[in-house]
Amino acid sequence: MKEDHRKRVTRMLIRHAFTELLRVKPIQSISIKELCTQAGINRGTFYAHYTDIYDLLHKIEEEMLEDFTKTLSPLFGADPYILTLKKVITEIFQCLKNNADICTVTLGPYGDKDFAARLLTIGQELCIETYTRMFANATRKQIEFCYAFISSGCIGLLEKWLAEGMLSSAEEMAEMADGLIRYGVDFLQNQNAHRHA
């Protein structure tokens, strides 16, 4: 038990040091020596957990994908009439907030854009399933194009959210995303109307 705790703490130290370095330089410029110094560990400790820097990145991303899948999987079995787009988006934003460190670097200048695309693919089936129920007259192709448009917008929202230090809650972000998806520019017009009411 104690051993498991120590391993977990060591992995957290390595992950924190790694994401801090990834904020300022590309992965190919990060040496294991530099990472170990940043994490306050020796090289032997690093190699007890990972084979190299790329293995470290791969394992961090896999953990987050697992977390993301685990978060979203209960929604797949949810009653289709209770499940709303806003609920799906809230869960996605909450999961991203829980993994803020890796999200910041993934979407940063030295990030792994393929990883962001893989995250979106996990949410895709769930959103398409929800849209198919909500918009019975739309074709699968139309829904897929709509999802492509919306997901790019959500990445923009996420980048802005990360840049502000994730000060807004996942619920606030989901509310905004849901409003923009449903009403577009009308959403801003409605905000204006509320303010003057």
If you had to describe this structure to a student in words, what would you say it looks like?
The longest helix is centred in the N-terminal third of the chain and has 24 residues, at 53-76. With 197 residues, the chain is mostly helical. The chain is 79% helix and 0% strand. The model has no long low-confidence stretch (mean pLDDT 82). It contains ten helices and no strands. It has two domains: 1-50, Homeodomain-like (Arc Repressor Mutant, subunit A); 58-196.
Fill in the keyword field for this structure.
197 residues, mainly alpha, Arc Repressor Mutant, subunit A, 2 domains, 10 helices, 79% helix
What's the β-strand tally?
0
Order of helices and strands: HHHHHHHHHH
Task: Count the domains.
Answer: 2
Shape: elongated
Radius of gyration: 20 Å
Question: Can I get a quick summary?
Answer:
The protein has 197 residues and is mostly helical. It contains ten helices and no strands. The radius of gyration is 20 Å and the shape is elongated.
